[in-house]
Amino acid sequence: MLLRIEDTDRARSTSEATQAILDALSWLGLNWDGDPISQHANADQHRAVAEELLARGAAYKCFATSEELTAMREAAQAEGRPPKYDRRWRDRDPADGGDAPYVVRIKAPIEGDTVIDDQVQGEVRFPNDALDDFVILRSDGSPTYMLAVVVDDRNMGVTHVIRGDDHLTNAARQALIYKAMEWDMPVMAHIPLIHGPDGAKLSKRHGALGVEAYRAMGYLPVALRNYLVRLGWAHGDDEIISPEDMLSWFGFEGMNKAAARFDFQKLEALNGNWIRQSEDADLLAYLEQSGGSLDGQHAFHTPPNEPQRSQVAQLMSGLKERAKTMVELAEAANFLFASRPLTLEAKAEKILSEGGREAISELLPALEALEDWSLGSIETAVRDHVEKTGAKLGKVAQPLRCAATGSTTSPGVFDVLAALGRDECLARLRDQAQATQ
After folding, report:
1. What angle do the packed helices 393-405 and 413-420 form, to 10 degrees?
2. What's the pLDDT score for residue 49?
3. Dihedral over Cα of 314, 320, 322, 328: its sign
4. Which among 32, 194, 340, 371 is least buried, having the fewest CB atoms inside 10 angstroms?
5. How far apart are CA 52 and CA 427, in angstroms?
6. Angle, nearest 10°, between helix axes 413-420 and 375-389?
7. Distance between CA 185 and CA 171 in Å, rounded?
């Protein structure tokens, strides 16, 4: 895969914008071969092709002024016609223009059709009288995108052009350049655009658009790739598609013509699935590397120390079961980093105030007597206490969870107590037991 930065629009093509593209592709795991190519850097090649088109009689110099072009547009609008250049310089002697500035326009055919054999849209015909004599070289000598993209595709050996169907008309225009230069045209495939949940073209009003926003919201690269490939393409009823299957299955035959709708609920569900499928160590490494880029209130904005890292690793299998995003996973681990006394959620406070603190007070001596602070010994001590007192396990386990984490949801309560370590865990339980005195 070759990467070309199409930066003919110099005002919008900043180094920051280019770096954002490189960072986004790298994060997604869409890696390219060789160095990125700047379209702007190839301007001399583009101009050379424009001169060749002039020499072949397939393009011409247009000396129309901005005032004349404005008058053309206004007249067309007044008459209910599409605003289009009237070709007044198409057959004139360029010597008539003298030393005035000029643009170079393609000499589009006036009769017949331009046909695009598209891999998704099928055969698409464009009446030539509807195609304008578009500009390929501006008055300052800079090439337009329409020319540059064709020349670069040719020079880079591009075999397939796969892009949004809003470029379908551009394919007809670009075909004129290929034909005039007697070049073979690449295989064309114009795929449906992505629409928002309301069916309108995806735009800023629908929320996040840039890749960095999805990273910040806690979506994994593998999940985002899986979701995006399913928008407008399908392989039977398969929803979870591995990177390996994606590469071997993908093809034009599975593409739809209709626009796809972006559904955040489906993306979340898919992301949660990929989180559960991921190795615990991989998730921990991702949190450590990306924590500063994730939204939300969580401790991974700064890297955890080694004891905290070990605690998260111990609980990762339980933490990932409930998380739909990496932000949720990071926030679910917050209780490990919290300072005493814990801030209790309302539901946790209710459970503790309605007999939970008394249940902890009764259990504390058994836990304090433990010399071996391990998952097995903690569970045995709690279950022995429940059996001796006749209490229900839930009436003891849930207050333990609330006291240890400040929340009513967490990984398994015995896993939590073990991961916190003896001193921190007993201190948190004593905080709640003493609140009854």
Report:
1. 40
2. 98
3. positive
4. 371
5. 82
6. 130
7. 10
Dist CA 148 CA 163 (whole Å) = 16
Phi, psi dihedrals of residue 397, rounded to the nearest 5°: -65, -40
pLDDT average, residue stretch 316-321: 95
Q: What is the largest CA-CA distance in the chain?
A: 108
Contact 340, 435 (CB under 8 A): no
- Going from the C-alpha of 322 to that of each of 271, 275, 318, 336, the distances in angstroms are 11, 9, 8, 17
Q: What phi, psi does 133 have (nearest 5°)? A: -80, 80
Contact 198, 262 (CB under 8 A): no
Q: How many residues does the chain have?
A: 437
Q: Which of 323, 299, 296 is nearest to 311 (CA)?
A: 299
Q: Indicate which residue of 84, 201, 204, 392 is catalytic.
A: 204
Return the ∠ at Cα 291 (arms to 208 and 227), rounded to 5°.
40
Active-site residue, 204 included: yes
The structure's pTM equals 0.86
* Residue appearing with tokens 């593998």: 222
pLDDT digits (tens, 9 = 90+) for 374-396: 999 999 999 999 999 998 999 99
